[in-house]
Amino acid sequence: MNADEVAKLCGALSLKEKEGPLMPLKKTLKDDGEKRLGLKLVGKILSNKLVNWDAFMHLIPKIWKIKQGVDIEVVGENIFSFTFRCGEDRRQVLQGGPWRFDKALLVLAEPRGKWDIREISFTKVAFWVQIHNVPLICMTKEIGIFLGRMIGEFREIDVGSSGECTWKYIRVRVVINATEQLRRIL
After folding, report:
1. DSSP string spanning 50-111?
2. Which of 2, 159, 170, 176 shows the greatest Cβ crowding within 10 Å of its Cβ?
3. Is there a domain that residue 10 lies in?
C-alpha cells in the first residue's frame, strides 16, 4: 500500500457518520439527579497528613448521630462523598457543624449542578460565634446581624423566645474562610 492509498483511506474515516442527532435530556432524569444531589455532601479534612479512611468512615456516622444511615466514599486525599438516606440527617449534619476529626477541621460543601468535586475549594465553613462585651442597649437582633456581617457571611442569629438577644453575649452563625486567620476583636 503506498502513501496515496493510506491518505485516501484516512480521509475516508469520519466520526460524523456515527454521530446522531442531539437529544435533550428527559426532565425526569434531571429531576432524579437533582433529588440525589439533595441527599449528598462532599467534605475535606484540612490536614497535612492523610487520615485513616477506615476509622473515619466508621466513626463519623456515630459522631454525627445519623438516624437512617450514610454511605461514605473516598474521592481523593482526605476528600469524601457522603450520601445520606434521608434529608433530615443531611440537614442535621450541616446545622450541627463545624465538625472535626483527628484534630483537623472537616469542611463540608453541598454539591450543585455540574460541579466537579476536584474544583471545590473547601475553604468556607459555618461557625457559631459568640460576641461578648456588647452594651445592653445593643443586644438586639439587628445589631447581631450587623456584627455577624462584619465577621463573615451571615447565616442566622440565636435569639430567645422574645425574638431578641437575651444572653450574656450575641450568638451568630457566620461563614468564614477557613484558610484566613480569625479576628479576635471587632
Report:
1. ---HHHHHHHHHHHHT-SS-EEEEEEETTEEEEEESSHHHHHHHHHH--EEETTEEEEEE--
2. 170
3. no
**Residues 111 and 43 reside in one and the same domain:** yes
What phi, psi does 175 have (nearest 5°)?
Answer: -100, 125
45 and 103 part of one domain:
yes
- Residue-wise pLDDT for 2-38, tens only, equals 777 777 776 666 655 556 566 665 656 655 656 677 7
pTM reported for the whole predicted model:
0.69
- Are 84 and 66 contacting, i.e. CB atoms less than 8 angstroms apart? yes
Cα distance between residue 174 and residue 105, in whole Å: 16
Query: What does the longest C-alpha to C-alpha distance in the chain come to?
Result: 94
User: What 8-state DSSP symbol labels residue 117?
Assistant: G
For residue 37, the surrounding DSSP H or E stretch is helix 27-37
What's the pLDDT score for residue 87?
87
Task: Kindly tell me if the per-residue pLDDT of 115 is higher than 70.
Answer: no
